[in-house]
Design goal:
Helices cover 56% and strands 0% of the residues. With 140 residues, it is an all-alpha fold. It is globular.
Amino acid sequence: MNRRVGLWGRRVGLLLGAYGALALLVAGCGAVETATADIPVQDATLVAAGEVVYQAECAACHGTDLRGTDEGPSQLSELYVPSHHSDAAFLLAIKTGSPEHHWRFGDMEPIEGLDDDDIAALTAYVREVQRIEGFEPYPP
């Protein structure tokens, strides 16, 4: 009888230890922290041009500091890591708009008058700020 309890206790202990180690590993990997390492340094000329476009076209809803307003979400949210919202997603949202998802701000309308170069510059600006500032947890 004692032998069975001893074996069972050791198995439970090993299982709990394995779950604990896994939990520490997952917690230590922090997707928000490592996401900025995935963003390369952006071209300074593009970033400067992109800031001008961003402030003129995006800041009213997404905030002058990219942290959002009551009209639109923060572009520093972990939802905007490149692995979840790629640069192509920015292009698509700007050109065709974006239906409401993740947030409760309503649909985003397309932004008229921006060409592919403007959008590339704007995206470089957003990615550079994300790289420098890091990401905020979702939900805020």
